[in-house]
Amino acid sequence: MKKRDMLRFKKLLLEQRDELLTSARKTLSGDIHLDPDDFPDEIDTASSEMNLAFQGRLRERERGLLGKINGALDKIERGVFGECESCGEQISVKRIRARPVAQLCIDCKSEQEQQERRES
């Protein structure tokens, strides 16, 4: 991969990481507890609990993405960004543009997904 491309992807990944961290800070600084006295009936309480659970799942997904972003940034620093972790071939720039945290080339990813389908 060209150095110019790596720098562009590094900038993109840093921006994504900053957005995730900003979002997480906003969530943590907000009031995320439930006080039963705040809700007049059970439906309001249940709705708020569902919303809180959804936000928790969303934050968990974001934390996973943050780990992948940090991994991709580490690969850039080591000069191995864009290499498939399975076969070692170069991941296409088109795929990396679509998913900068991609760890597998399209062929290896397709094979992995087929294997997962067979196992489930």
Walk me through the structure.
This protein is 70% helix and 0% strand. The protein is mainly α and 120 residues long. It has 2 domains: 1-81, DksA, coiled-coil domain (Four Helix Bundle (Hemerythrin (Met), subunit A), Up-down Bundle), CATH 1.20.120.910; 83-120, no CATH class. 8% of the residues are buried. α1 packs antiparallel against α2 (42-78). The protein has 4 helices and no strands.
State the order of secondary-structure elements, H for helix, E for strand.
HHHH
Range of helix content: over 70%
Question: Which architecture of the largest domain does the CATH hierarchy give at level 2?
Answer: Up-down Bundle
User: What overall geometry do the principal axes of the alpha carbons give?
Assistant: flat
Report the mean per-residue pLDDT as an integer: 87
The end-to-end span amounts to: 36 Å
| Count of DSSP-assigned helices | 4
Portion in beta strands: under 5%
Give the CATH level 1 class of the largest domain.
Answer: Mainly Alpha
How many strand segments? 0
Write down the CATH topology of the largest domain: Four Helix Bundle (Hemerythrin (Met), subunit A)
Query: What low-confidence regions span 5 or more consecutive residues with pLDDT below 50?
Result: none
- Given helix and strand content, the structural type is mainly alpha
Major β-sheet annotation: none
Task: Tell me the count of domains.
Answer: 2
